[in-house]
Write a structure and sequence with these properties.
Mean pLDDT: 95
Largest sheet: 6 strands, mixed
Order of helices and strands: EEEHEEEEEEE
Low-confidence stretches: none
Number of helices: 1
Structural class: mainly beta
Oligomer: single chain
Helix content: under 10%
Shape: globular
Distance between the termini: 39 Å
Strand content: over 45%
Length: about 110
């Protein structure tokens, strides 16, 4: 099963920005789409943004217009640029292939008022 490595979380004030990175192996990156997911305390994990191998992207309504997912084939990386962060964006963020894979440790994003 493909496992990815997330990084880039941190603490930011409301209205601020963060950029998350998800690194995959070359074969995984070229074979599968990759998505970002998040899990807030006491809530179920939810999908945030998806990047398909054909270039299509999808966004959850809650982040549309604020978050941007992008693929960098030179670095086998899928990034999530998060702008205008809100307190409700606080969660552990995970990336995962859109296929057989496992969850990594995730990266914590905390938005303060």
């Amino acid at each position: 099963q493909a496992q990815l490595v997330e990084s880039g979380g941190g603490l930011v004030q409301a209205g601020g920005s963060l950029r998350l990175s998800c690194v995959a192996s070359a074969s995984t990156f070229s074979t599968y789409g990759i998505g970002w997911y998040r899990q807030a305390p006491g809530k179920q994990r939810e999908w945030v943004a998806l990047s398909h191998t054909d270039g299509r992207t999808n966004y959850a309504d809650s982040v549309k217009g604020r978050f941007t997912i992008s693929r960098d084939s030179a670095k086998n990386t899928v990034s999530l640029q998060m702008n205008n962060l809100q307190i409700e964006d606080t969660a552990v963020y995970y990336c995962r292939v859109l296929g057989p894979g496992s969850w990594g440790q995730g990266t914590q994003v905390t938005v303060s008022s």
